[in-house]
Amino acid sequence: MEKTANRIASFFIAQGAAEEDDRDIYVYGLTIGLSTAQNILLTALVGFLLGVPLKALAFILPFAVTRLFAGGAHAKTAWGCAVSSAAILASALLLIRFTPETAQTPATLGLLTVSAALVFLFAPAEHPNRPISPRERATFRRRSRAIALVTAGICVGLILMQIRDYPFCISLGLAAAGATLTPGTIKRR
Asked: I need a labelling partner for 87 at 20 to 30 A (CA). Which of 45, 74, 135, 189 fits?
């Protein structure tokens, strides 16, 4: 992914649309953008293959937004990230597809409780490739916690409106993001 981002940055620099001095910033941003596009395409593909594209979206949105501010475990390579993401997504969508409707609400409430606790305890998780300052840490902690609370509120609201499937999908997304924060999944400094 980074090689592709470097090539794109080189193209922009050669065209005069970017400065060589800012190459690292462009490569970093392009890498994140390419990775995000790859994950969105992967989510759409897996969702369509399993026949649940909207539920795939309901899963991936809280997962991605939480990870944006909470951080968590990362694969060592872009390929590892793609494979891990596909496995997490496919597992979640299979759970969504085969969990009986009567079990979804209790499962949602349990997942929300555990995943919110993980976010409150461990977020943000710093990654060696992206150290965070004490000021950013405080901001990311507040945002991560707010995301967990808003996600829980949305799920409870949907349950109260008797919409059963989507709260379960959303809570699984938050739970998957929370699981990547556990001390056993990442090396802390």
From this structure: 189
